[in-house]
From TrEMBL:
Name of the featured protein: Microsomal dipeptidase-like Zn-dependent dipeptidase
Gene Ontology biological-process annotations: proteolysis
Source organism (scientific name): Streptomyces calvus
Comp. bias intervals (Basic and acidic residues): 1-19
Pfam families xrefs: Peptidase_M19
Superkingdom as given in the UniProt entry: Bacteria
Annotated region described as Disordered, given as residue ranges: 1-26
GO molecular function, a single term: metallodipeptidase activity
Length: 378
């Protein structure tokens, strides 16, 4: 815990709730797909073309439960491959995964002080795993570090999302977790972001996340919370595991009106490759991607493998090596290479750039917040 205190920012006054912050300019954050020469004719086998597209636009996977899975294994070997996990290095390479968010969620759901300790234990384990497999993995906190990892032939690992309970209702802990490498926080299961929406303290948490450059994850959040975060946040948000409720009535999936709002806010809905949320076949997953692209727009849809979470996966998508099968199905449906490039890589990069740009802008206008839940939610 001494490290936490050392990393805390000095406290100053709370910024005004109505303080205007300029929106991030589109030209600063939109990442065009990288140019490349197709290695196969469009009329060739879709799997061949899928691999060619993924070579230029690898997958940025929005959610992996690997840290929690490894925590329960007595022994594993990610370098050579391990049947106990879905995402060892050979299969990540075969699936053309270039970046992945490692979840620090706690399936057992500890609360209070234990939530912070358990989250720190998860983060410590995740960092150790990356360090032990530095020939294939590389930690990344910024868009530049993601690019560096890719240039070195490594998979970039971003730490998060974590559960909001880890904060213990403290903005100082939020800053400490950010300094330790956390990059995404799920705004659920706390008093200030619950079924009734954000409280005043919850709004202050979002503003402080904007100032730091931490991504707000709204999967599993209540509809009032989602609506208020979309209004308060000056940075783009993401839904780390949400598909279309019109196609699959799962509580974490989004109804059409919210998908439209996500598009207006230029957020990112990342479709989970789980049978429970997306359906039992690769075609069902593609249906969700078609539906969300039509409602939210081509720049607001992404992929979440949700591997190593204990969830059942659709046919043909059993592990991270199977991403080319999904891309091939999209190509059969008429998706062009640029749309696939946005889906797999470009849209995540846009969100990361938008969050980073917003943080730089807000830091010029707003000092670290000293607000407490007792101050704002009396």
């Amino acid at each position: 815990m001494a490290d936490l205190q050392d990393d805390l920012h000095p406290a100053t006054e709370v910024g005004r709730a109505d303080e205007p912050v300029p929106p991030y300019p589109q030209e600063a954050v939109v990442v065009a797909p990288e140019s490349y020469e197709p290695v196969s004719d469009p009329d060739d086998d879709p799997m061949t073309r899928a691999r060619a597209v993924l070579a230029a636009h690898p997958v940025a996977d929005g959610y992996s439960g690997l840290p929690w899975t490894l925590r329960r294994l007595p022994w594993y070997d990610l370098d050579l491959g391990d049947s106990a996990v879905d995402a060892d290095l050979p299969r990540l390479r075969q699936g053309r995964v270039g970046a992945v968010f490692w979840s620090l969620h706690l399936p057992e759901g500890p609360g209070g002080d234990r939530a912070l300790a358990a989250t720190l234990e998860q983060l410590d384990l995740a960092k150790a795993v990356v360090a032990d497999h530095d020939a294939g993995l590389r930690p990344a906190r910024t868009i530049g570090e993601i690019a560096d990892a890719r240039n070195r032939g490594r998979v970039a690992v971003l730490f998060g999302p974590a559960g909001a309970a880890a904060l213990g209702d403290s903005l100082s802990v939020l800053r400490a977790l950010y300094a330790l490498g956390l990059r995404a926080l799920t705004l659920t299961d706390v008093s200030w972001a619950g079924p009734a929406g954000l409280t005043r303290f919850g709004e202050e948490v979002v503003r402080e996340m904007n100032r730091l450059g931490m991504i707000a994850d709204l999967s599993h959040a209540s509809t009032p919370t989602i609506g208020r975060v979309l209004t308060v946040s000056k940075a783009p948000v993401l839904f780390s595991r949400s598909a279309a409720r019109a196609l699959r009535p799962h509580p974490a999936n989004l109804p059409d009106d919210l998908l439209t709002e996500v598009g207006r806010a230029r957020g990112l809905c990342m479709v989970p490759l789980t049978a429970e949320q997306a359906g039992p076949t690769v075609r069902d997953v593609a249906d969700h991607l078609d539906h969300i692209r039509a409602l939210a727009g081509r720049e607001c849809v992404g992929l979440s493998g949700t591997y190593d979470t204990g969830s059942a996966h659709p046919q043909e998508l059993g592990d991270t090596s199977r991403y080319p099968r999904l891309v091939a199905e999209l190509l059969r449906r008429g998706w062009d290479d640029s749309d696939v490039g946005l889906l797999t890589w470009g849209n995540v990069q846009r969100v990361l750039r938008g969050v980073d740009f917003t943080a730089h802008a807000v830091q010029q206008r707003r000092p670290p917040s000293t607000a407490t839940i007792a101050d704002l939610d009396r």
